[in-house]
């Protein structure tokens, strides 16, 4: 397994958010996380790449391993971990820099100085994120001038420029129109050949379109995990069925 989560509990102060969460994420696949608002999906993915470390009231117990290595081990370098486990957020968050510099950013902060190499990776990343044709003639223009859908693909290019292994996506299409959403979904299909993707989505159709596996979260617990086809066609748990048929949440 690429990612293995065992008996994960997380807390903000003494409020428990995630309760005994277990998950296996196979390599080169898309796993969708579904569940009603506030059930802990974002907290979960932010625990995987240790983004919650930035919140002083956060604590956890249990284990998350990436390729068999505990991501919370003292020997793990958090900067290196976040390079391996990239993240794409709900709202596109380009830096107020040029399109080129947005994608080059990660390479530069990791010490890359070879400008020819940087230019090559920027081009490859923009191509992989299916936005190259739209921006190739204005790489020096501000990323803030792009549409929301273009900004989100730029953020995906920025994430893949540092060669991550896992990409965490927190509702990556929720701020986008249907056409941009389709572009991102097609892109996710392509990206799973190289990367392992874990994606939070509120859109049930999207989960069935893009993911192979689904985990259903409710009140900080995983109620059911399995193949997406099974979860949506033949859920084992009554709560899963109630949720996917829109009876709550
Ligand atoms: N920094 C924080 N401090 C305290 N509580 C927090 C913090 N961040 C999140 N929470 C709480 O953790 C719970 C889970 O929130 P989380 O954002 O993980 O849910 P979610 O399933 O991703 O929701 P949504 O679908 O609305 O994004 C909520 O009750 C939220 O209020």
From TrEMBL:
<dbReference type="GO" id="GO:0035435">
    <property type="term" value="P:phosphate ion transmembrane transport"/>
</dbReference>
<protein>
    <submittedName>
        <fullName>Phosphate ABC transporter, ATP-binding protein</fullName>
        <ecNumber>3.6.3.27</ecNumber>
    </submittedName>
</protein>
<keyword id="KW-0067">ATP-binding</keyword>
<dbReference type="Pfam" id="PF00005">
    <property type="entry name" value="ABC_tran"/>
</dbReference>
<keyword id="KW-0547">Nucleotide-binding</keyword>
<keyword id="KW-0378">Hydrolase</keyword>
<dbReference type="InterPro" id="IPR003439">
    <property type="entry name" value="ABC_transporter-like_ATP-bd"/>
</dbReference>
<dbReference type="GO" id="GO:0016887">
    <property type="term" value="F:ATP hydrolysis activity"/>
</dbReference>
<dbReference type="InterPro" id="IPR017871">
    <property type="entry name" value="ABC_transporter-like_CS"/>
</dbReference>
<dbReference type="InterPro" id="IPR027417">
    <property type="entry name" value="P-loop_NTPase"/>
</dbReference>
<dbReference type="InterPro" id="IPR003593">
    <property type="entry name" value="AAA+_ATPase"/>
</dbReference>
<dbReference type="GO" id="GO:0016020">
    <property type="term" value="C:membrane"/>
</dbReference>
<dbReference type="GO" id="GO:0005315">
    <property type="term" value="F:phosphate transmembrane transporter activity"/>
</dbReference>
<keyword id="KW-0813">Transport</keyword>
<dbReference type="GO" id="GO:0005524">
    <property type="term" value="F:ATP binding"/>
</dbReference>
<feature type="domain" description="ABC transporter">
    <location>
        <begin position="3"/>
        <end position="244"/>
    </location>
</feature>
<dbReference type="InterPro" id="IPR005670">
    <property type="entry name" value="PstB-like"/>
</dbReference>
């Amino acid at each position: 397994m690429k990612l293995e989560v065992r008996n994960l509990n997380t807390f903000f102060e003494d409020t428990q958010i995630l309760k005994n969460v277990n998950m296996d994420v196979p390599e080169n696949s898309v796993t969708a996380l579904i569940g009603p608002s506030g059930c802990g999906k974002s907290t979960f993915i932010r625990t995987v790449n240790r983004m919650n470390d930035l919140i002083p009231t956060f604590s956890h117990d249990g284990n998350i391993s990436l390729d068999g290595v505990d991501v919370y081990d003292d020997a793990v370098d958090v900067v290196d971990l976040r390079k391996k486990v990239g993240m794409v957020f709900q709202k596109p968050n380009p830096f107020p820099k040029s399109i080129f510099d947005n994608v080059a950013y990660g390479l530069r902060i990791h010490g890359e100085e070879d400008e020819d190499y940087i230019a090559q990776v920027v081009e490859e990343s923009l191509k992989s994120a299916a936005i190259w044709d739209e921006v190739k003639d204005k790489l020096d223009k501000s990323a803030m001038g792009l549409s929301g859908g273009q900004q989100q693909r730029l953020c995906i290019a920025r994430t893949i420029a540092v060669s991550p292994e896992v990409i965490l996506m927190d509702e990556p299409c929720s701020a986008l129109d249907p056409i941009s959403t389709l572009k991102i979904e097609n892109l996710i299909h392509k990206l799973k050949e190289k990367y392992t993707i874990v994606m939070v989505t509120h859109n049930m159709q999207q989960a069935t379109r893009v993911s192979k596996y689904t985990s259903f979260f409710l009140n900080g617990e995983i109620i059911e995990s399995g193949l997406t086809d099974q979860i949506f066609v033949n859920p084992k748990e009554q709560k899963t069925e109630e949720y996917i048929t829109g009876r709550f949440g």
